[in-house]
Amino acid sequence: MLSRVQDDSRPGARVIKTKRRMRVPMLTAPGIFQTVEVPPPGTDLGREEVIVRVLAGGICGSDAPFFRSALALDGRSPAPPGAPLHEIAGEVVLSASADLVPGDSVVGWATRFDGLADYVVTEASSLHAHQTALPPEEAVLMQPLACVLYAVERLGSVAGRTCAVLGLGPIGLLFCHILKRRGAARVVGVDRVDRSGIASRFGVDDVVWASSRHYAAEVADRSRPDVIVEAVGHQVSTLQDAVSAVGECGRIFYFGVPDDDIYPINMQRLIRSNLTLMSGGTLERPRVLAEAEQYLRQFPELVGSLITHRFGRADVQRAFEVAVTPAAGRLKVVLCLDRTSEDS
Prior knowledge:
About 25% of the residues lie in helices and about 30% in strands. The protein is of the alpha/beta class. The strands form four sheets. Strands 5, 6, 7, 8, 9, 16 and 17 form a seven-stranded mixed β-sheet that branches. The longest helix has 14 residues, at about 140-155. The protein is globular and about 65 Å long.
């Protein structure tokens, strides 16, 4: 456990003392977690760093390649203890930032991707102190929601436009919900998993139960979307499908995470059709996390619709296995890391 003692040497800082080592999941082989003992974080924080007691985490699609490979972000080193998890909710216990103080309930990024640990060091600029009454395993939805809000903001106005989203997992469905509420006239959702039973809750007007390749090949010229969001990632073909399917002067946002450095695309199509291709990560994180908090206040039903599986700390292995397996009844998988086990 960690105890806190006032340290007046710098504003907002606290000293923590360890009473025991942390037992942390670690990938010891592709797709296999084992528990290891590691020391808690030291108290010598860098500028604007904080230590967060992690109470909950959300498993993101971008965690899947690292789970399957047991590699760190550099793609070469073994995954460190606590990886791969970056979506976290918890409590600040030590702070070198004037913006966050011990006791704050926060949500955001574990910037070292080690969110399966009891305590993590992360950047204050990647966190938001929220005021919701949501339990941590529900509050953690603010992190992926913030990412989607920022991407839609960068897309510009979608009012009156036809938008298509490739991939109707948790991220894709959030895109559908936000695009519809930003004024999209029609939202098309494309997925190899049948999402027809739930898609309407997220503002999807037309569900296409097919691969993105099939959708791109079959879409009629008069039905080509003005905007396409690629929310699948991890493969080259889906970006090319977006380029093939979008209408003249269309916009494409590549949100999916690339597993390859080089993605070949049809540049003739991109140029001759005057297309705009966008991508990128989430900047201004405290601001968009605060916007995500307000969005959840406005649409609280998103929590119950999106979270389908909850697991405790003892069930991390099973949680990841479920999260990386596409299924009609599986959307967001969250971890209640302050609990030993939880009904899924």
